[in-house]
Design goal:
5 strands; single chain; alpha/beta; 5-stranded parallel β-sheet
Length: about 160
């Protein structure tokens, strides 16, 4: 029985994402610590390739034009919304914004604080996923706890 789970997500967990997360441990309700990065700049070329691999042409053009970084206020709103979704399902949840550091380093801190399992929730990132440089792959290499990578708003496993 897992007592504590750390969730690293790019954006707020949807109701469906929260239900799937809680269902992983049903009927138990482990404590969840939600981490949302802010101020993280992505490589423009990698973003374009990610969108092209999914045949998202409009998004690829938008990525080529550049995009604003996620602000701490936006990330804080995502943390709050995620906590609300999880607590509505009876799961004790806390969270924080990961600002200015590598998100996997924040997971290292969560494991040191007692997280027994990691769940990474992202959009598909074809380049990073294929080359195993995505957050989940790096966390598996570094942390020594089970790491599950799922894609947001779907039941696909990364």
């Amino acid at each position: 029985m897992v007592q504590s789970v750390a969730v690293l997500t790019e954006r707020a967990l949807s109701a469906a994402d929260a239900r799937r997360l809680v269902a992983l441990h049903d009927p138990d309700r482990p404590a969840v610590r939600v981490l949302v990065p802010a101020g993280r700049r992505r490589n423009v070329l990698v973003d374009v390739l990610d969108h092209l691999s999914l045949l998202e042409l409009r998004e690829a053009v938008g990525a080529a034009a550049g995009h604003a970084e996620r602000t701490p206020a936006e990330a804080a709103a995502d943390v709050s919304a995620s906590i609300d979704e999880l607590t509505a399902l009876g799961c004790p949840a806390t969270g924080e914004v990961v600002d200015g550091k590598d998100p996997v380093t924040a997971l290292t801190g969560a494991v040191a604080a007692g997280a027994e399992e990691i769940v990474v929730v992202t959009s598909p990132h074809a380049v990073e996923d294929t080359l195993h440089r995505d957050w989940a792959s790096v966390a598996r290499e570094r942390l020594g706890v089970p790491v599950l990578h799922v894609y947001a708003d779907s039941s696909w496993v990364g």
